[in-house]
Amino acid sequence: MPVACCVILKCNMYVQINMLCIVLQEISLDKKPLRLLNRKKNVTTLIYVGNPVQLIGRSSDKGGKFVLLDNSEYDSKVLSQLTNPLHYSQIEEDPTQDILKVVANWASKWVSQGQIDVVFLDLQLSICDRKIKSNLHFKPTDSHNYLLYPSNHPKSCTKSIPYSQLLRARRICSEDSDFSAASKSILSFFEKRQYPTKVLTGALHRIQGIDRAEALSKKSNTSTNLRIPLVISHHPSVRPIIRAIYRNIETLRKDPSTRDLFPEPPITAFRVEKNISKHLVRASHPQQPTDNTPGTFPCGRSRCNTCPVVGKNTLINILGSNGNRFSVNQHFTCTSTNLVYILVCGRCNCLYVGETKRRLADRITEHLRSIKQNLQGYPVATHFNPPSPCSIKDLAVTAALMCRGSDRDRQTAENRLIMKLGTLSPHEEREALLSLKRNKNLIIKPADKGGAVVVWQKDLYVAEADKQLSDQTAYTELPSDPTSDSQALVKKTLTNLIRNNQLPKSATSLLHPCPQISNFYLLPKIHKANNPGRPIVSSHSCPTVLISEFLDSVLFPLVSALPSFVQDTPHFLRLIQDFEFPENCGERLLFTMDVSSLYTSIPHHAALSAIRHYLDQRQDPQIPTTTFLRLTELVLTQNCFQFNGRFFRQVKGVAMGTKMGPSVACLTMGHFEEQLFSQYTGSHPFLYKRYIDDIVGVATGTRQDLESFIQFVGSFCPFLKFTHCISDTSVVFLDLQLSICDRKIKSNLHFKPTDSHNYLLYPSNHPKSCTKSIPYSQLLRARRICSEDSDFSAASKSILSFFEKRQYPTKVLTGALHRIQGIDRAEALSKKSNTSTNLRIPLVISHHPSVRPIIRAIYRNIETLRKDPSTRDLFPEPPITAFRVEKNISKHLVRASHPQQPTDNTPGTFPCGRSRCNTCPVVGKNTLINILGSNGNRFSVNQHFTCTSTNLVYILVCGRCNCLYVGETKRRLADRITEHLRSIKQNLQGYPVATHFNPPSPCSIKDLAVTAALMCRGSDRDRQTAENRLIMKLGTLSPHGLNIRMDLF
Question: What InterPro entries would the database entry show (predicted)?
């Protein structure tokens, strides 16, 4: 007869109460060893139904076997151990019969009802006939605090939780009725956690299609998925980034060096971020200090140098230069260790944040020593010494944070406090920079030559530009922006040339994807009288910019083959290195000539004629000359630009600023010189060389012969005007002072009177390898130029004095000079051919003092990648570090564009006044200047807009709930807002703005207000980038705002 369960409680008047364990399986009455589901301390109690037998059941000491022992045999083994009163007590009566009666009643009840209710883990187990039935058991203390659905987690994560819980119920519940009841309970738990009905019903439908046997089957993980995980932090904005990665993964897979690295696209994995629990729950329980007073206090030691500076006052609330405050909430003394500290200047409230692993007193002693010794290169010492008005008497110290972790944790805490308090640069300097940037009455430009910075009064700048643009022989004014027309013409021309097989199909890449109008600006010529401006056209995104680059790559080899070509100063020095005047020649004369306004003086027909002349001399032309001429004509005639809100086209000359400009000017001059020398019958110069529009030469005849030649040059071409200088001693050419010494030409370094020598300041935030190389490069330049050692010695002294004024240490300067003194001039002049085949991959990062440990860590661990077969070929050598050029003060203040200032400078968005404008009512409700985002950040509108403003970023504001939507448009603001109004009135589905301003939302179209936020002059990408930044600044992504995504390229 099968036995469902049994109990053994026979112990001869000695009773030890043990945990009651249920054997939930069918067992037989034979004495075979049984495997039990639960036991404790090698004592197992059996409950069975049937006639009681005198057996004792125990699990073996080892091995997990179950043993049935005879009563007498059991007594003989245990009575010897029961006499210890510390572990056992004797009772007066045998309770066996009473316990057996209770057990018998339980067993009879269970058998009569055909079930047994026992809880094991999360199972409720019962006997049904000869089987054990299982059901899901919820403990009374279960909170069911599943992840809230609106929480900031991947939706794949939140949606999988109901499915996993229902799958758990499917496994546990052996009866469908039990599963139905359990699933209803589970779904009710998730409804309280704000899970949508659609998600819950979808999970339930998936589970209902799974059989219980399939759910219970053990899944063996035999997957060999080798996809590389892309581990990132989850944020609503990362989805477009992931999609962009998957769209462009083929680029890596096409590269032979990375083909094996990504055999399949990477799999996205989101890291577990720090949640509320990790913020609040701590394993450590540090001992509370006896004195809980926050602040830093003297230690009381007799020779402590730090006690006086921490005892001046109790610094609790530290005010940063950016307005942020930091409150000290811990107790410190001079002997406290492993902390972040703050130095405070009591006179000017300037702050310094540092960290130390040692005692605070030891680190502050080092600061005090640097101040007393006025050590150079230490910012604290510089601040508390003359010429600064602050002194060591103004110094106060406080510890800020106790750091329990590693050195990296302490340094991280230091960096966070630096950013919080804004101690990297003085607040006053940033305010002055912003004030200068906002000053619309000043134009700041670099000087045309000499490296000086020129502040130009705006009205004088505009007057000089208008004076030059009023020359109708060179410029013609246009009624509107011609960019779209120029783009259409460029596209049509390229299409025709490709169709006629005059250009390859790849020439479609010469069409700029996002063209914009060029800008006209002036560079002041401070080295000339009345300081005229050199006209420059900034054409980096004009419709013909790519064609100009292509033409320059074709024309420059023709330029370098010209007889008079000079590439640069070292090239010219190599040309005259072995020059000697003939013996018994006439006068030895040097002369220079300069072409006045060469770029703007060249007629288009002369430029095209010169280019045709040299292109026809090609030996194996793959592209016809007529094709190049058509493209050149396109660049010359479509040179359009804007200035001060007006549009112009250059009708004569080539623009200074276009890539092919120097090549076109040089070829035109080369063609002019070829005709000149072929027609001039007089005495030619012994040497004639030219650098673009600067000519230098040597004559050996009489001065009158040379003057006749120069006069002929000036009259040969009516559109070119020349100035000249003749000397029998010395002349200036480029940065050279050339003089005659016997039969040789001696060269020396020439400094223009307007040279500012504004080299990079040594303490500036640049890589030291960069700042240290500047003195060396300037001394090497002098070594090349100066043909006499005495001249080099004088020039080097001048150069070193310039760098001393820029705060370069003497050690750096003397080291550079010693390196140069070991280089011979012939070696310095020799042309270095760049034959390097260095294929090291550049690691391009922003420079910061803290990146050095990062770079060292990369180099230390690069072997890990090189040992991996899939990345071995990717890094055959360690990467080479390259620091990107960051935005400096010049890029903040100097602008090529000079937009026309509106007549009304009132910031905000105002009605345009047109009779049928639908946007006027929503922009005329109020003047939105300061926009408050959902994250507490504010955005201030500081430009003037109307409904007809174009190419901008705008904000929709709900006046009822202050919900925001950020958008962008290239068209008029009124056109884009009209589309929003139409979507609201038609209640179009899938449009977040329409959904927000229609029922069941309490907000309506009457609550809508609109403001333009930013004017974007650049391309579509620039405008969308500005939109994304404003979305992040104001926190308008759903659910905190109405933006559902950010567009990425």
Answer: GIY-YIG_endonuc, HTH_animal, RT_dom
The average confidence (pLDDT) of the chain is 81
Asked if pLDDT for residue 34 goes beyond 50, the answer is no
Give the pLDDT confidence score for residue 425 in this predicted structure. Answer: 60
Choice between 28 and 416, residue whose per-residue pLDDT is larger = 416
Q: Which residues share a beta bridge with 457?
A: 442
Cα→Cα distances 1015→517, 690, 943, 1019, Å: 15, 45, 8, 12
Distance CA 541, CA 519 (A): 10
Distance CA 776, CA 828 (A): 12
Residue 663 burial by Cβ neighbours in a 10 Å radius (0-12, 13-18, 19+): buried
- Written as six digits, the tokens of 797 are 């002294």
Cα–Cα distance, 147 to 159 (Å, whole number): 10
Which CATH number fits the domain 295-426, given the four candidates 3.10.20.90, 3.40.1440.10, 2.40.50.100, 3.30.70.1050? 3.40.1440.10
**Helix spans in 717-788 (H):** 768-785
**Rounded-to-integer distance, Cα 993 and Cα 922, Å:** 14
| pTM, full prediction | 0.58
Helices (H), 337-426: 360-373, 379-383, 407-421
pLDDT greater at residue 338 or residue 2:
338
Domain boundaries of the chain, sorted by first residue? 133-216, 229-275, 295-426, 459-747, 757-823, 842-893, 908-1034
Assess contact for 579 and 588: CB atoms under 8 A: no
Do residues 785 and 748 touch, judged by C-beta distance below 8 A? yes
Smallest CA-to-CA distance from 56 within 26, 100, 87, 11 is with: 11
Query: 149-163, 245-259, 805-819 — which is least confidently predicted?
Result: 245-259
Asked, colleague to colleague, whether 295-426 and 908-1034 share their fold, the answer is yes
Q: Can you state the angle between helices 545-560 and 661-679, rounded to 10 degrees?
A: 40
CATH class of 908-1034: alpha beta
161-177 residue pLDDT tens: 999 999 999 999 988 89
